[in-house]
Amino acid sequence: MSRGVDRSAGRETGLLSDTELSAIERANPDGLTAAQVVEAFAVRNLKLSEATFRKYVQQGLVARSRRGGRKGKHQGSMGLYPATVVRRVNAIKQMMAESYTIEEIQRSFLRFKDEIEGIDRGLKHLFDGFERELMSPQFEVARKKTLAREIADTRKLAGELVGRIESLERQIVTPLERAARARAFSSGASGGAGDLL
Questions:
Q1: Which among 32, 128, 38 is positioned nearest to 79, based on CA atoms?
Q2: Band of residue 33 on the pLDDT scale cut at 50, 70, 90
Q3: Neighbours of 59 (CB within 10 A)
């Protein structure tokens, strides 16, 4: 059984580790179906039903899927979630285990994460478009190589920029979430999200 470890307490948390999350994201760069998201948790003996996952989508905790084509002729399309969806579900499960309410989780995710994920997806789409256009026969071989290098370098810089934005978001949002959590615990508020675990 492969589970994340709370290093401060040295005990199992029932969550995916960062290593597992990164491996899932690398293995599914084009995204995952809802069934694949559920399976990513199930094969590690972690609880997540498709109904719960769909509830996360309905409540805005997870972005809606986008239609993606299947390889092969006449294969149609399927709903794909970005590979980072597993990381998002893992974070939701962690927050629920820490007694955050659905409203607190929604505020946390809706505050900046959707915009950041939108920027990341938009940049990836933009660079993919640049690379497709570069395949055009109008470019000489030497010019293609130069532009391909520049695209790769700029794509890397864009990834670093998104990483820095995510770091800023964590630095800004985490103290606010801690304060909200402290208020919830000090007031004896209930209404945790245990029904969605």
A1: 32
A2: very high
A3: 16
pLDDT tens, 117-159? 889 989 999 999 999 999 989 999 999 999 999 999 999 999 9
Cβ within 8 Å of residue 98, ≥6 positions away: 181
Query: Packing angle between helix 50-58 and helix 34-42, nearest 10 degrees?
Result: 130
How many other CB atoms are there within 10 angstroms of residue 79's CB atom?
Answer: 14
Bridge partners of 79?
A: 67
Relative orientation angle of helices 85-97 and 18-27, to the nearest 10 degrees:
150
Please name the amino acid found at residue 47. K
Look at residues 24, 192, 173, 15 and name the one whose alpha carbon lies nearest to residue 101: 192
Q: Is the pTM of this model over 0.85?
A: no
The pLDDT of residue 164 is above 90: yes
Which residue blocks in 46-113 are alpha helix, DSSP H? 50-58, 85-97, 102-108
